[in-house]
Amino acid sequence: MKPALSNEIAYKALQGFFQRKPFVLFGTGTSCAVDLSFGMPALQKHLSDTIAGIKLSPTQKAEWDSVMAALGAGKDFESAMDAVKEQGLLKLVVDLTARFIAVLDKPNSHKIIMGKLQWPAIAMINKLVAGLPETDRTLHVATPNYDLLAEHAFSVAGIPFVTGFWNGICRKLDWQQSEREVTYAEAVVSCRKPRTITKLKKHVRLYKVHGSLNVFLKDGELIENNVWVYDPPPGVDRVMITPGTSKFEQLHKNRYELLWEFDKAIQNHDTFLFLGYGFNDNQITNNSIVRKMKEQGCQGLIITRDLNLRIEKLLSECSDLWVVCKQDGAEKQGARVYNSKYANWLDFDARLWCLEVFSKDILGG
Question: How much is the pTM?
Answer without folding.
Answer: 0.93
